[in-house]
Amino acid sequence: MEHRNTEMPGVPFDIRPARAADLQTVVSLDEETTGIAKVAYWKDRLERYAGGQPDRYFLIAEKDGRPAGFIVGEVRAWEFGSPPSGWIFAINVNRAARQDGLGTLLFEAVCDRFRRSGVRQVRTMIAKEDKLVMSFFRSQGMMAGPFIELEKGLAP
Ligand SMILES: CC(C)(COP(=O)(O)OP(=O)(O)OC[C@H]1O[C@@H](n2cnc3c(N)ncnc32)[C@H](O)[C@@H]1OP(=O)(O)O)[C@@H](O)C(=O)NCCC(=O)NCCS
Fold first, then answer.
1. Ligand 1 pocket member 6 (CB < 6 A)
2. Which of 14, 64, 66, 156 has the fewest CB atoms within 10 Å distance of its CB?
């Protein structure tokens, strides 16, 4: 295991790269939170992000040797003029394992990788009404950034 939790001695948390065999674990963790089993979506994400491609990170957290959470992110550059930065686009911790530091460990693990990739900024996007995820990312020191999202409904 490559990322041993040193913050809470005696609590066996580990972080490891995801692999194709984690598909059902990831689908189940996401389904527990969102209520939707997105098998094709997560299969595609694992193929794109878990293969060790540079600047793409799909990490699994294990608690007591069992997968209990994941985080997915990548370094993106120059979209809408934005210099290279780390983007987190999914995080999830099993309900039974929450509020025990696992989400923080995942966040720190992906930020470590972003730093090693040479970027000095990490970004994410959250639903405004999602107070839990907002509280979590604020607890990690994240603040409102310089971009805003715009949208428009499209008539068929
Ligand atoms: C957000 C999430 C990853 C946090 O994971 P976690 O392992 O519980 O996080 P941590 O234990 O590291 O908590 C870190 C901080 O987050 C905040 N936090 C965590 N759970 C919270 C809760 N239920 N209410 C308010 N704040 C909370 C706290 O500030 C906490 O710090 P503290 O323990 O000092 O109070 C987890 O709740 C989750 O997976 N939620 C669903 C995520 C989701 O909707 N994903 C789909 C879209 S990407």
1. no
2. 156
**For atom 20 of ligand 1, which residue has the closest CA?**
99
Q: Is residue 41 part of a domain?
A: yes
pLDDT digits (tens, 9 = 90+) for 46-56: 999 998 889 99
Q: Which two tokens stand for residue 46?
A: 């694992």
| Alpha-carbon dihedral angle through residues 102, 104, 110, 116, given to the nearest 10 degrees | -130
With the most atoms of ligand 1 within 8 angstroms of its CB, the residue from 28, 87, 139 to mutate is 139
Cα distance between residue 19 and residue 17, in whole Å: 7
For the stretch 76-101, pLDDT in tens is: 999 888 899 999 999 999 999 999 99
